[in-house]
Design goal:
The protein is of the alpha/beta class. It has helices spanning about 15-30, 40-50, 65-70, 90-95, 110-120, 170-180, 185-195, 205-215; strands at about 10, 30-35, 55, 80-85, 100-105, 130, 135, 140-145, 150, 155-160, 160-165, 185, 225-230, 235.
Length: about 240
């Protein structure tokens, strides 16, 4: 059992057979797992169980997965992997914009789901890479770009001395950009840095999460101060002139 395979996973899925299948695969992979079947139970279970990863079905009875994600993000920065029954881009974007880290479309392979969760656990700490080569450990590294301060050791962000609260994924994206000021990083590079080069996903992850970071920094995408879009390529971080 690898270190990345240990941790707590909360599965919220209203189909009992599927919930049991996911639970069994995760337990066999070494995770401690709890299961809930509706949204109302899910929010309190996140508080009580404090999972590292929340596997959250969108189509829950009563309180749906979107609302659960919204509520969870007010008090927890656990990884959130959403399950959607439709390959609907709108559902995916809405889920990501509410703070989910990624999504899996049903039907899916339980082995793929376990692999996704293991990858999430491996990136629980910021460890960016460039061209496949790991950077120095971020412990103690502080990036000061204008009035924006990104502290890799404490994983804290301040703008003009005001703290900015980010999720793990949001922090890792911002820290990746801050570690390479004035350098254009493609969406693929950012995916590799934050999610890992074995992550089979699309560029919506980068775009939606950085949109959330911008909002928290009070940025206007049309007239950015720190995070600049390089059309057709990716993003660049630069201090205001």
């Amino acid at each position: 059992m690898t270190e990345a395979s240990t941790g707590r996973v909360l599965v919220v899925e209203d189909e009992p057979d599927l919930a049991r299948l996911i639970r069994d695969y995760l337990q066999n992979a070494g995770f401690r797992v709890e299961v809930r079947h509706d949204g109302a139970e899910a929010v309190s279970a996140v508080r009580d169980f404090a999972p590292n990863v929340l596997v959250l079905d969108i189509g829950l009875p009563g309180t749906d997965g979107f609302e659960v994600c919204r509520q969870v993000r007010t008090f927890s920065d656990c990884h959130v992997l959403m399950l959607t029954a439709r390959d609907d881009e709108v559902d995916k974007i809405v889920g990501l914009s509410l703070g989910a880290d990624d999504y899996v479309t049903k039907p899916f392979s339980p082995r793929e789901l376990v692999a996704r969760i293991q990858s999430m656990m491996r990136r629980a700490r910021f460890a960016p890479t460039v061209a496949g080569q790991p950077m120095d450990e971020p412990s103690g590294l502080i990036h000061q770009i204008g009035e924006l301060r990104v502290d890799g050791s404490s994983r804290q962000v301040h703008l003009s001395e005001k703290p900015i609260l980010l999720t793990k994924t949001e922090f890792d994206l911002l820290a990746s950009l801050a570690a390479h000021p004035k350098q254009v990083l493609s969406r693929r590079q950012l995916l590799d840095m934050v999610w890992g080069d074995d992550w089979a996903s699309d560029n919506h992850l980068v775009d939606v999460h950085l949109a959330r970071v911008r909002r928290k920094l009070g940025e206007d995408a049309a007239n950015p101060r720190y995070i600049h879009t390089v059309r057709g390529i990716g993003y660049r971080m630069e201090a205001p002139a």
